[in-house]
Fold this protein.
Amino acid sequence: MAIRKVGVVGLGLMGSGIAQVCAQAGLPTLAREVDQALVDKGLGRIKKFLDDGVAKGKVEAAVRDTTLKNLTGTTKVEDLADCDLVIEAIVENLDAKHALFASLDKVSKPDTIYASNTSSLSVTEMAAGTQRPGRFVGLHFFNPVPLMKLVEVVSTIVTEPAVLTEVKSFAAAIGKTPVSTGDTTGFVVNRLLVPYLLDAIRMLEGGVATREDIDNAMKLGCGYPMGPLTLLDFVGLDTTYYIANIMFDEFKEPNFAPPPLLKRMVLAGHHGRKSGRGFYDYSQKS
Ligand SMILES: NC(=O)c1ccc[n+]([C@@H]2O[C@H](COP(=O)([O-])OP(=O)(O)OC[C@H]3O[C@@H](n4cnc5c(N)ncnc54)[C@H](O)[C@@H]3O)[C@@H](O)[C@H]2O)c1
């Protein structure tokens, strides 16, 4: 594999998980955040995840130590110059992503591959804004990254076939199962998952069943690990609302339209687990 050094930009929820799995696979990994406090916070999150794993007997202490040794933080884009692959996991905002790739393009070596972890933006549009559209893919990881096996590998009509092959073997090398998809909003998983989640809200809104019965029906009837309303609370209602709007904008199909109840809950600040309240109440739980 030609990918020997990885850069990760953004050490938030997803970026810290991505940096961790790359470093854990033995790849020197350089992670960039906007300031030192956020670098420290991101690296601290990774250390805590690994420390907890060691305490529970799920991660060997030696693996934790090697992983942390492979990880470096920086605030400078220039430091990513010699990375073979740079994975972007910053805020879901096209202008911010364009600006980042423009600054990276000035410093990266010509054969560096760029990947975006975007959930809903156009990979083609991001790629077209760079000097290397053929060496640009989407790498859509799932949360929590260290535990979820899937990565959607998104190619555009201009992605070089050799780049796609390279990125898929990288995904396998970091312990993930790659699934190839074209650059369509929602890729495979969200294209199927989002209408399902929205329909569960519509069902609750229409008084068809209670939240518990909707969740239990899908758990016990379909063997899903959790029901749709519990899952929505995990994903975040604000995030789901945002993605639904982008998908509706793209496809103009009613099944992607966010139901009024979702909008009202977001406006009321009921964003799910992270805000202490979503379809369920988490205010008493730690
Ligand atoms: N949260 C999810 O479940 C999920 C799943 C798959 C994909 N994604 C995608 O991953 C990306 C990141 O999402 P997240 O949930 O980790 O967000 P987050 O808000 O937790 O983290 C984003 C981080 O990027 C940093 N950042 C912003 N601009 C930066 C820049 N120019 N350089 C370096 N760092 C910068 C921020 O300081 C923040 O720490 C988004 O594109 C999102 O759509 C999210």
Observations:
- Residues 9-15, 32-34, 38, 89-92, 96, 100, 117-119, 140-141, 143 surround nicotinamide-adenine-dinucleotide (CB under 6 Å).
